[in-house]
Amino acid sequence: MAKWVYRFGDGMAEGRADMRNLLGGKGANLAEMSSLGLPVPPGFSITTEVCTYYYAHDKGFPDDLKKQVDDGVAHIEKIVGMKFGDPNAPLLVSVRSGARVSMPGMMDTVLNLGLNDETAAGLAKQSGDERFAYDSYRRFIQMYGNVVLGVEHHHFEEILDLHKSDLGVSLDTDLTAENWKKVIAEYKAKVEEELGKPFPQDPRTQLWGAIGAVFASWNIPRAITYRKLNNIPEDWGTAVNVQAMVFGNMGNDCATGVAFTRNPSTGEKEFYGEYLVNAQGEDVVAGIRTPQHLTLAGKKANNSTLPAMEEVMPEVFSQLNDVRQQLETHYRDMQDIEFTVQKGKLYMLQTRNGKRTAQAALKIAVDLCNEGLIDKKTAVARIDPASLDQLLHPTLDPKAKREVIARGLPASPGAASGKVVFTADDAEDRAAKGDKVILVRVETSPEDIHGMHAAVGILTTRGGMTSHAAVVARGMGRPCVSGAGELRIDGKAKVMIVKGHKIQEGDLITIDGGTGEVMAGAVPTIEPQLSGDFATLMGWADEARKLKIRTNAETPLDARTARKFGAEGIGLCRTEHMFFDGDRIVAMREMIMAEDVEGRKKALAKILPMQRQDFVELFEIMKGLPVTIRLLDPPLHEFLPHSAEEMAEVAAAAGVPVDAVAARAAALHESNPMLGHRGCRLGITYPEIYEMQARAIFEALAHVKQTSGDTAEAEIMIPLVGIPKELTLMKAIIDRVAAEVEAESKVKLPYSVGTMIELPRAALLAGEIAKDAAFFSFGTNDLTQTTFGLSRDDAARFIQAYERQGILARDPFITLDADGVGELVKLAAERGRKTRPDIKLGICGEHGGDPASIHFCAQQGLNYVSCSPYRVPIAKLAAAQAALTSSGDGRKGEG
Ligand code: PEP
Ligand code: MG
């Protein structure tokens, strides 16, 4: 016979905490608490398998369920010494849902089940409180009538309101037992009128009705929506928990409350919770009465004048405090508990692992480890890497009011408020005057860099998670919301319009780059607190992880920030990003626009010293560590001058007529720049560019080595290789320049040459390419773009439709597509290693900062991942977790 029902109570239980798949979270933990000998009202759980059966059999139940439920009821009756339907000692039960994971408030609950005309009178006699008994009965009819029988709520409300106005009272508490009896009669008449049959008086009929209703509520719209939002599978189903009622509203020796065993916002080891005397559970959450603090400390900290439970019921409080200790020691984690006190006796109604802020999660994990309850590995495993973002950037004050006017992608975390500006120059001007500004653009380009630097936040209406704005903002640690498509920008008029709001230049807005929200006005933020716990946990993560963590950085500021967070080198220095500032962009344009080698060499000569100086600083900062420098790789359009002003600037610098510049810009225009004249194709056509860059790198290396005796190790990386010979030719240039600089400086240069794998052809030919490559770095932004044939700059506009329809589980530009792109990574790694067993493998696409993608990289045995500076701690933690889950696939545990 199948076992459908698991009983608990009186120090015994047939279930256990680890049976949550079968019993639901609530049922499993009630069983566990009962086995621990805690005061749990007796009851039973009907398994999630019955839910599955119910839906598979046209809302029917297995034949042998009835007997098991009857046994369950008998079990409760025996323990509490009361009987279902017995007027002298009526047993009342609650019937509640309980899925594997908590779905708060999403499914239905019925309380006080077992009341009818006779048992209500019995309850009045037994409790000595007639008002309480009839109030309970009318609550039951209302709840059961609505949830199980489908009588709309307003019918009951109307009857009650009419009574109150007839009596001239406004509060439910003003009604007497006699008043309630009249309300009950009308409720019952209403139910009969609506359904054509009377309100069920038989407790067992009531029970089966309620069980069916809870199973049915698994599929009500709000529960379905909640599951979709939280990735909860449809087929999990819910369990049903039937449990003896206990009452917190039988007088002043009764109470009900909720508590956390530690403070869920700070993680402090303090008992944290609220209670109400003479109240039912809903009253605490409903906000009708002001809940009181459990502890004297809590009362004091909140300047409350209402008495604490510690004062009012010292004995029960001390018992509750013992339960708190016992539960924490048992579950080895912070618990979220619900309790009721009935006539001075404590009952535990629920326990579960408590939700907490990122800061609290860190503190609790570190403290529990120091208390000897968990080991370091468990502590490391408990922290959600992505949640660290909350700690590394300013965040919105959770208490602050906010008016969300638009939403985009959470492109770079952190929150910022500032005055709206629409151009990079305006950003710089206003910032120079001391204003905080948010730069709002349709999309950003390299020319906006100075404005992005000057701004405290960046908002774009177009572009995805790997758009220029997103990548650059993350690198700079600036909050960014990208692709907020509802916003309309009128650049000329300097206004943006959204949902009837007209926002002008200089108006205040707030963006939250962690959620993608755009808000009107300034919303207060709070600064990150990198406490000692953060450092401690990071230390434990470092002990566990195998992957090295590098950073994507071009500027000394980024490089320093990343080192502060513990980066172990630079995995990607995008050299073109070094040319966005000030005069450099002009020299760069001059070079790109030059008609011939001579013109290019002239411009390159201007660039060389600047480039050399950049590298000197990076090599000094990254002393002893590897620095991967990628030679020029811009889609050309990023550097072409657009405005007349820009053209004039380039013309003046190059000493040619403006017309010539305009003609050249038109000639260089490409219809598909991302697949155009970029990457090593530039080096093939204009070798002097790579030659200059190689010289700048080597002269910088020699200089740093000569002046400080130590330097970083240069890894020179050729982008967008798809044909092995491209690499062979570029490597020959680099090796030649290295030999020249070694001869000139008499310094042995620590360098190697490698390539990016960012085209499918490169992955396929990795064995051949590895002959010339000391390392591969997977450029998974382009590899995703080229494998899917999906533009990284345009995908954001429609990718959500793919996610909604379940065509893609997630945006492949955020989380590496293990099935497709990942196959290419795997294959390239294999083929590369076959040619060159010691080939160094890393990843430098945006995926290098994404926890699920990091798990994938760990599985493939890559040597390192490289991510933006502010993601370094996240990557470290994710890498540690990957190392700790030996079976590997990081995506499994994610819900
Ligand atoms: C990539 O393509 O993954 C990469 C890191 O290069 P970029 O984003 O600069 O094209
Ligand atoms: Mg690329």
Automatic annotation (TrEMBL):
Annotated PEP-utilising enzyme C-terminal domain residues: 531-882
Its domain of life reads Bacteria
Which first-to-last residue range defines the signal peptide? none
- PEP-utilising enzyme mobile domain span: 435-516
Q: Which residues form a coiled coil?
A: none
Cofactor(s) listed: Mg(2+)
Q: What class of enzyme is it?
A: transferase
Family statement:
Belongs to the PEP-utilizing enzyme family.
Instruction: State the protein's name.
Output: Pyruvate, phosphate dikinase
Protein's organism: Dongia soli
